[in-house]
């Protein structure tokens, strides 16, 4: 989160960025913020998701 804050503070607010991560980590992080991204979401991911 600190990086996102730093990014917007440098005049990049409103710009798009790309974040790459492992599917397991992404699912855990998304599930923390929204319960709809649980086990079934993880099982539906393509492996690898490119």
Polypeptide structure, described:
There is one protein chain. By secondary structure, this protein is mainly alpha-helical. Helix content is 54%, strand content 0%.
User: Percent range for helical residues?
Assistant: 40-55%
According to DSSP, the number of beta strands is: 0
**Oligomeric form:** single chain
Rg: 14 Å
Stretches with pLDDT under 50, minimum 5 residues: none
Q: Determine the number of helices (DSSP H or I, runs of at least 4 residues).
A: 3
- Looking at the structure, what is the overall shape? elongated
Whole-number mean pLDDT: 75
The sequence of SSEs as H and E is HHH
Structural class: mainly alpha
Distance between the termini: 24 Å
Task: Name its key features.
50 residues, mainly alpha, 54% helix
Can you describe this structure in just a few lines?
It is built from three helices and no strands. With 50 residues, it is an all-alpha fold. It has a domain at 22-50.
Spell out the blueprint of helices and strands.
Elements: H1 2-12, H2 23-33, H3 39-43
């Amino acid at each position: 989160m600190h990086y996102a804050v730093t990014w917007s503070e440098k005049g990049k607010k409103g710009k798009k960025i790309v974040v790459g991560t492992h599917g397991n980590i992404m699912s855990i992080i998304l599930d923390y913020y929204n319960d709809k991204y649980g086990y079934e979401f993880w099982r539906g991911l393509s492996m690898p998701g490119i």
